[in-house]
Amino acid sequence: AQMKGIFHALMQANPLAKKERDRYPDPHRFMVQANEALTHCLERSSFITAAFYLIDYQAGGFSFARAGHCHTLYYHSIKEEVSYFRTEGLGLGIIRDAGYEKHVKNQFWDYNPGDVMVIYTDGIVEARDGEGNEYGEERLRLMLETCFYQSAEGINEHLRHDVQEFSQGQPLHDDQTLLVIKFKAAQPHT
User: Which residue has the higher pLDDT, 39 or 69?
Assistant: First the structure.
């Protein structure tokens, strides 16, 4: 409960900001602030992974920072290819001083209509079949190649179904969270 309060406080909009985009922290700043806050309440042997995306629908792009979380899977509609964002980023709470700041970076990306972003927890790629084999990042990538043209809901359902089929009723070893975003054209503010 204490950590939920810290993250809630970090995510609140800044009511004094004059511009809409200045109302929220940039992803890098958020991760640095979260890391600092967690040093006061997280057990010494614990850490948290996270990814923070700030989408600007007016400009047609987004910025993000990764703190040790699973690499984001992305379908590029112009290139017609699926790949992972192989970005650096150290989990929150691993380094508990100002030196953490250099271990997380802001990334910027312009999206195109039809691009698909898949953010997931490690329970998806670490799901196991009856023989102990992991589902894996490669299978997830290949599955997105087969369904990128569907709606975000359809893609989510397709990927979840494949993980369940692969697991053949095996018990979950970790939570399985899957978020799919399918981008439309930029929506300039009028």
Answer: 69
